[in-house]
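for the writeup, i need someone to sanity check this before i put it in the appendix. the sequnce is what the collaborator sent (i think, or maybe the updated version? ugh). structure was predicted straight from it, no edits. if anything looks off just tell me and ill rerun, i have time this weekend
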Amino acid sequence: MPGPTPHRTPLRRVSQGSLLVLSRSGAHPDAPHGLGFIEPALAELADEADALLANVEGLHALGDSLQMFNESFASWLYVMNMNALTVDWPQAPTDASFIIAKRRAEEDARAALEAMHSQTNPEPSNLERTTATTDHGDETAYAETTIPDASAIQSSKSATTVKVKKKGKPKMTPKEKKERAAAIDKTISCLPLEFRGSDPGLRRNMEQVIEGLMDRAGQGVKLHDLIKPPDLNQARVNKCLIALVNRKVVVKDNSSGSVLYHWQGVPV
């Protein structure tokens, strides 16, 4: 007795024989002879190829649109970044500036009121008369005493004061000068190319700004303290400070109401 038929995956009719057998099978009695039966299949294949080509062209157009959008968006981001780096107004008033201005206005009003009160209550005259009674009778003797004027006292004080000359910067030893020059070169090497030598005048201005910040490393420095006309004007100082702040070599602080720049050095 023969065994059971093994399980087989059902196949399409085309896979069970040649196209010639399929064309001459009994299921298709009106099928064309020879290669004529391939014409409908090729027509359908051509339609599908046209649809595939249209889809590929659509994908190509989509890629071009994405590329154009990326370029436009990248340009917009670059413009915003440049605007943030170049448009900086350190002298713009803050909330603390308005508070300080209000406090100064109150102090000026108080000083004006005190001056008005002092004018309504004049001081006694410089010439005062004192009376003294003699032992021999009721006669009264008058003595005149002169009180020096406040302006005279002030002039005498100013004449006795000694002028104190301001001390300049202490002279640096050759070793200290060499170390400072090395620190300045290290700082400039971290800055953009325009500060590293492409513009000699800008590099010289950057060195002057760094030296001014180093001289006051323990305290804040205002922007106007670094201006040295005519070469180092406000625009050049502002440009140098923006580059130093971006590299975190200098820290910008406006918590006190005025903008101060603190020297930090090149970050490790």
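Confidence is low (pLDDT under 50) at residues 125-148, 157-164. Residues 99 and 183 are 40 Å apart (CA to CA).
thx in advance!!
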